[in-house]
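Handout for the seminar on molecular recognition.
Each group receives one record of this type.
Step one: identify the two inputs.
Step two: read the structure output and locate the region that could contact magnesium ion.
Step three: write two sentences on what you found, then compare them with the reference statements printed after the record.
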Amino acid sequence: MSIAFVIHSLEIPLVRPFRTSFGSQSIRDVVLVEAVNDSGVSGWGECVTMAWPGYSAEYTRGAINVMREFLLPTLLPLLDQGERGGTPEPDSVRAALSVMQGNPMAKSAVETALLDLWLRERNLSLGEFLGAARDRVDCGVSVGIPDSIEDLMTEVGQYVDQGYLRIKLKVEPGWDLDALRAVRSQWPEIPLQVDANQAYRRSDAEHLAKFDEFNLLLIEQPLPEDDLLGHTLISSVVSTPICLDESILSVESAESAIEFGATTIINIKPGRVGGFLAAREIHNLCVEKSIPVWCGGMLETGIGRAANIALAALPGFTLPGDTSASNRYYKEDVTEPFVLDNGQLRVPTGPGIGVVPIASNLVGMSTATELIEL
Ligand code: OSB
Ligand code: MG
């Protein structure tokens, strides 16, 4: 038994540029990790890094490097044992990778590729493995910062018409109150939230309190990721619930943020926390603490999306996620497209993540392919 890894680099144009407080992108550079066993069965994981370290310290070329130089070689003893036992157990993979610090997105991609392979060998779906409680999930959509209020209204209008159950506006200083006022006046009832991606500071508390009049579900990550106290402080001035994204990197940081009063809702992204096993543990903690969670997104292709949807089907995911349909991002996805139905996506039921890349799309979108045999 041996496992070979293939690192696929792809570029896929976005249907429209996606601008946030940390930068803009019009092409998604995607890394897919493929783990292939002796029988030729492949498991897949998507690395959700951006091309530059704007959202977090990780970035795509660095992630590929750390996988090649450190993460995959670290798994070698486990894969050798696998000569007798097959694809290593998910918990052992996680434990082996944990000797390396940081790099959760790269770890998640490697761990998920091996988890997908392990599940396919057992004919078990990721949803069943994680404990999915439903077969469809409610979907929201994340709206980037456009050039004008007029463009914003057109874009939001399209998403409302398509049936999205909740709208999230990206905000930053200078693009917040006017945008909220415009959207709220047109859609007074639609579930609405904002995401600042760390663009404000503690001194903006009074300004953020002005968001309260727009009846938002939450304000996502207003302050820098390491400023837990700042989030606690603004929570005493702002009535809208604060939801952390970038600050939540592990079960321990989730528990700290909750106990510290820095967050009352959590956005769970498997890539940000180092994989689906950690994501499930954070979900379980939040259920225990009565903290609602929702599934974030990183402009995934169908590979990462399929796995996110299985996670979003767990019982504690009580708010619509950033789990939008393929056509919100891409004219053509690398897998069969995920299509919105009544504001929901169906949880894949096939073995593993339940989807595979379409071979011709993988070739057409590819910029580099690297085979790593350990
Ligand atoms: O902060 O949630 C975020 C996209 C890239 C990086 C960070 C974020 C986002 C999104 C889009 O908001 C979520 C999605 O639709 O995939
Ligand atoms: Mg966010």
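Reference statements: DSSP finds 14 helices and 13 strands in the chain. The mean pLDDT is 97.
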